[in-house]
Amino acid sequence: MRRSRQVILARRAVGTIVVAATVSVAAACAPAATDQHPNALYTEGKDIARWTLPLDPYLLSDLQLTKAAYAAALTVDDCLADKGIDDPVPYVDIDAAYGSDVTVRKWFDLKIAQTHGYHEPSQQRPASLEAWDDFQRQASTPSEDEAFLACRDAPATVSPGYSNTLMNFTSGLAAAAYSGASKDPAVLESAAAWNACMADVGIEDLPLTPIEMPSESVRQRLGLGASIDGPITEPTGEEIDLATTDAECRDSSGFTKAFYDALWTRESSMVEDNEAALVDAGAEIESITSEIDDIIAESRAR
């Protein structure tokens, strides 16, 4: 059975992450930490336009996750060559690819709706990462799988990765805040207004809250949720139109603001309650990120 290298190498770079409530609900540029106090980035207050939230410094950005997988692939290059697999990792400047558009969480807003429709955040990739994404999606034979696994797990090719414990702790806090915010009275009230706004769109299984969009019938009609190993399709005009109406209803109903306020309140409380642990988590993330950067820099210097 042939499978993509992405499947084989992924567990080496990063562990299983609790992301159900964090990956698809917010969009924010991740600012750099200025000191060791967990709330230092947020002393100037909320910024709903950038969707910044108190736990952002302790969640991994898509840039960090991409570089972790890239570094893991680089560490096994020589080992694979020794086993007769001469297919080196393509050169990609990941930092340049992302530029200033480094996201921690993606909130479904009007701009995303008009550009990407309901396509998942993982599909909203910088175009200049295409060579790396294609490399990951390459199918491998059973013998190649065996070589990849042996090289991946060899002590000589150990590369740094963000641990399950680290990521599940920080993303778990965000998930708990998300769950609580979704049940906030102001959020539920605005969700009802959103539902009324969407009533004439013609969705047979229109959910009570926009958090559950796109619904199953919408996903089936638009062909959403394809395999991560398959080609990334472009959103259709129908998808863009529906998503745009959805985003406009979220804003006009007050849902977007109510949900953001509820999230901010809960995440602020979690930062205060877990200050010491979050300082440690932030330091660990910074250390691992630095090691990953070193691996990539050393590879380019060869």
Task: Please specify the SSE layout and strand pairing.
Blueprint: E1 3-4, H1 5-13, H2 62-75, H3 77-82, H4 94-98, H5 110-116, H6 130-137, E2 139-140, H7 142-153, H8 164-182, H9 185-197, H10 216-222, H11 237-252, H12 255-273, H13 275-301
Structure, described:
- The chain has 302 residues and is mostly helical.
- The chain has one domain (3-301).
- It has 13 helices and two strands; from the N terminus they run βααααααβααααααα.
- The chain has a two-stranded antiparallel ribbon.
Helix content: 40-55%
Compute the number of strand runs: 2
Would you tell me the overall average pLDDT? 83
Major sheet details: 2 strands, antiparallel
The gyration radius over C-alpha positions equals 21 Å
The 3D shape can be described as globular
Record the strand order, biggest sheet.
Answer: 1-2
* pLDDT < 50 stretches: 15-43
User: Count of helical segments?
Assistant: 13
Q: Order of helices and strands, N to C? A: EHHHHHHEHHHHHHH
- Please tell me the total number of domains: 1
What portion of the residues fall into strands of 2 or more residues? Answer: under 5%
Termini separation comes to 35 Å
By secondary-structure content and strand pairing, the structural class works out as mainly alpha
